[in-house]
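Researcher: Quick one. two chains, 649 residues in total.
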Amino acid sequence: MRKAATDEIAPDEGDGPRREGDGAPGASGGPPAGAQGDPRPSGPSGRGAGPAAKTARARSGIARRREALTGLAFVAPMLLLFIVFRFGPTLGAAFLSVTDYRLSGEWTFIGAGNYTRLLGDDLFWESLGVTVVYTALYVPMTVALALGTAVLLHRTLWMRGFFRGLFFLPYVTSIVLAAVIWKWIYEVQDGLLNASLGLLGAGPVDFLGSDSLVLPSIAAASAWKGFGYSMLILLAGLQSIPREVTEAATIDGASGWQRFRWVTLPLLRPVLFFVLVIEAILGFQVFDAMYVMTAGGPVRASYSLVYFLYDSGFKFFDFGYASAVGLVLFLIVLVFSLVQRRLIGRDAD
Amino acid sequence: MATSSTSAERAAAPGPAPVSPHPAGAARPPRRAAARLGLPVLLVLVAVVTVTPFAVMVLVAFAPAGGQTLPGALDVSRATLENFADVLQSADITRWAVNSLVYSLVSVLLILLFASMAGYAFAKKRFPGREILFWSFLATLMVPFQATLIPYYILVSELGGVDTYWGLIVPTLANSQAVFLMRQFIVQLPDELFEAAKIDGASEWRIYTTVVVPLIRPVLATLGVFVFLWHWNDFLWPLVIGQSEEMRTLTVGLATLEGENVAINQVMAGATITVIPCLLVFGLLQRYLTDSIATSGLKS
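Model:
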């Protein structure tokens, strides 16, 4: 479900004021102007020759009502889908989380019962810990890779389009595919990494079988799969920095690194922050990679929060409890989104 | 200005070099040349690392049974289609591919239709509650899918949608990003076009099909590609809702292949089959796709 998360705050972020701004003139200068019976529509159509103000107003009322009805009719299919499959389940999740709903469909209201149970559930804390560590590994890896490749592409013109497409390639594949391939690369027996290490004379390493290496290994595979998206956004950010600024720094004698550190990086900060938050939100939702690569092992060393949710729901059919975990995930994502809005809003000033 | 800046750069080398911590100018020209060469070399290196996993997948998929160890797999002369034949025979992989295609293509068509209709209304029609509806659609982006997975599942299973195509497809159609993208694009179209059609006596539906749809073709194409890829690669929802073996999608099937005792060569053959449609779609529309991510992610 990367789709839900990828653009997380992209659409409503910072767009807010502008959208309201362009919505207003569109609304006042658009259809209503025609509906008001001003010269443009009534002239060529030949209707309404010398009408009294009263009939004009009546006509505009009808036109407005018709426009509202067509508007609603066009929104209706999507609205119905949203009511049944978005708003409904969101409220449903909140409701389920205060019940002991199980597979049978019978339930009683248990208030904060699920949440107090979560607080005392070692498995929950373990999974939360795994998720935090994973995110702390995944985000820097991904963003470093994305920033590095974006800077490289920005600096070199040589076959830029080709390389951009190539770096983006893993992003269009599924996490499952990445997991299947990388599991093989990490294999102890004849996996690519250990075969290469063997050539160098180093002993085999059990990347996915050791509890200290499993999370970095999964994070690296996910970073390979996911960095292309952030790379494109950072590249666009780099390209939006006016040339004059870096040129001025060059004239002042700044070296390449100094230019990057003191000119490019500060100007890139909002974009970089946007990318960091998006990747962090993705990090907290990790499931597919672990499901395929390690099944949460070894001994739950890669048992993430969503894995815990999935098992609670679909292994133990403890739907109420699983919903409570879902709400915790929602709150974490919400905090990230709000922090981002706060900081980017301030940066824009 | 531009010429003076470049000449200043060059002049700075032997001269004063104001802020630069580098001691002598003599060190600079060679470093510059190294940088000019170094960047492409670095690019190629990163590219090799990026492509290697794909290469490994293909090599192992074509390697003869048992010959999956590295030097062996590199021996292209022993390449065989055996693994593809085996995996096609032993697993329901064609059925899974059909499921993935149905899931992706039907979703693309319906999302494009409903989202463009809604986008048109949000952009060009005034109706009560318009702003509130639009923002409430967008607000759902804040709720991660996993957080609502359980009520989704209960709802669909109560409606009898487990192991059905509609149960797989319909809940995923409420896509806020699609509506948002459509609205943003349609808002920029000049109102005169719609008014002219209205004056000519066209019905609203006719205006939508003959004016709106042709004008938004580029954004329909972009969104179509994205929706296809999202759905083709989707995992958690198909995993939960397609419980029988026949209702698995390719990604879910691939994950279960991995879990069972299937030879790695066959798994990689399955993986290769899974990735082909993505690569095709991506190869055809690469520039389009990358440009739209770069701009839509940044529009602020």
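Residues 1-28 of chain B have pLDDT under 50 and may be disordered.
Researcher: Thanks, that's what I needed.
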